[in-house]
């Protein structure tokens, strides 16, 4: 069986027996859906670094229509293609081929994620999008991680797990962020994608610290390509920066002078409040672990599998 593939870049993959509507402006997508109602299309997550993820949802086209829309930033009015699809099955493609510029999946295998999860733990991101998370570490045996999101129907959903006794609070906080990354990128979290996203998360946070310290710009702390990490260091840095900037401006100093002094003052107060090192060689790692409550220590496959087993398969389980 050969099915046309539509890459999805935001993790918005429908689950079985639910519908989702997409809006398309490009010619390639129009060609994919030109067969109209009843045709089958495979929606696969796509990331510009790793390419197509081979697991996605096979959908059938329920309706296709054209409608004028306003595009940004030009505000031009163009005809867009609207497509409503219904999820049929979670499938894995074993290979791909190009035919006249169109990507087709071949050797499609249907997956029963509940049965698969018995031997290979995972979190299914189909049908919902993660929006934020929280990590509450009360004691080493009670570390609750919660991922909040919204279903494609607009319903607020969440899933949570107690990782106490398994990992530290800092590692749990990193896992929280990594799960959100993996869901946005692959619409699925496996031990492999979780490890990959944990490394990316800590690398991005360390980069924000390194640049923030070197440029004396504390407003960069915790800012990554996927958003801003909520943590004591980031919160205090922004609080002190805005407070000192306002105070300096009210005293009559120029904006440039006020901002420069506010940045230096914020850096000093944050490192003092959190008892962080000011030494160049150790301040980034201390800030990551003690200030941001993250841990960049690699975790073994066994630990990551145990972590995923403590979460439900999806918000509906």
Q: Any overview of this molecule?
A:
The chain has 317 residues and is α+β, with helices and mostly antiparallel strands. The chain has three domains: 109 residues, Roll (Archaeosine Trna-guanine Transglycosylase, Chain: A, domain 4), CATH 2.30.130; 75 residues, no CATH class; 88 residues, no CATH class. Helix content is 34%, strand content 34%. The protein has eight helices and 14 strands. Strands 1-3-5-6-7 form a five-stranded mixed β-barrel. A three-stranded antiparallel β-sheet has the order 9-10-11, with helices on one face. Strand 10 and strand 11 form a beta hairpin. Helix 3 packs across helix 4, helix 4 packs across helix 8 and helix 5 packs antiparallel against helix 6. The longest helix is centred in the middle third of the chain and has 24 residues. It is globular. The mean pLDDT is 91.
Briefly say what this structure is.
About 35% of the residues lie in helices and about 35% in strands. It is of the alpha+beta class and about 325 residues long.
Quickly list its features.
317 residues, alpha+beta, Archaeosine Trna-guanine Transglycosylase, Chain: A, domain 4, five-stranded mixed beta barrel, three-stranded antiparallel β-sheet, 34% strand
């Amino acid at each position: 069986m050969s099915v046309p593939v539509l890459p999805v870049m935001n993790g918005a993959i429908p689950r079985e027996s639910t519908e989702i509507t997409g809006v398309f402006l490009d010619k390639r997508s129009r060609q994919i859906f030109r067969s109209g109602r009843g045709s089958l299309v495979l929606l696969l997550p796509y990331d510009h670094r790793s390419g197509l993820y081979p697991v996605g949802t096979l959908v059938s086209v329920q309706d296709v229509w054209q409608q004028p829309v306003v595009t940004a930033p030009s505000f031009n009015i163009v005809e867009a293609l609207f497509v409503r699809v219904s999820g049929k099955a979670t499938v894995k493609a074993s290979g791909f081929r190009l035919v006249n510029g169109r990507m087709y999946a071949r050797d499609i295998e249907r997956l029963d994620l509940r049965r698969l999860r018995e031997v290979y733990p995972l979190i299914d991101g189909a049908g919902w999008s993660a929006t934020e998370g929280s990590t509450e570490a009360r004691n080493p045996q009670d570390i609750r991680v919660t991922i909040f999101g919204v279903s494609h129907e607009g319903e607020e959903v969440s899933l949570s797990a107690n990782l106490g006794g398994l990992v530290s609070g800092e590692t749990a906080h990193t896992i929280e962020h990594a799960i959100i990354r993996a869901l946005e990128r692959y619409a699925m979290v496996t031990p492999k994608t979780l490890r990959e996203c944990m490394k990316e998360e800590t690398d991005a946070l360390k980069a924000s610290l390194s640049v923030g310290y070197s440029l004396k710009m504390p407003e960069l702390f915790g800012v990554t390509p996927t958003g801003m990490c909520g943590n004591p260091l980031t919160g205090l840095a922004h609080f002190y920066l805005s407070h000192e900037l306002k105070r300096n401006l009210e005293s009559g100093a120029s904006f440039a002078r006020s901002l420069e002094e506010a940045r230096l003052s914020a850096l000093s107060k944050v490192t003092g409040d959190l008892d962080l090192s000011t030494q160049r060689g150790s301040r980034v790692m201390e800030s990551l672990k003690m200030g941001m409550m993250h841990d960049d220590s690699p975790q073994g496959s066994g630990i990551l599998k145990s972590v995923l087993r403590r979460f439900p398969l999806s918000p509906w389980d």
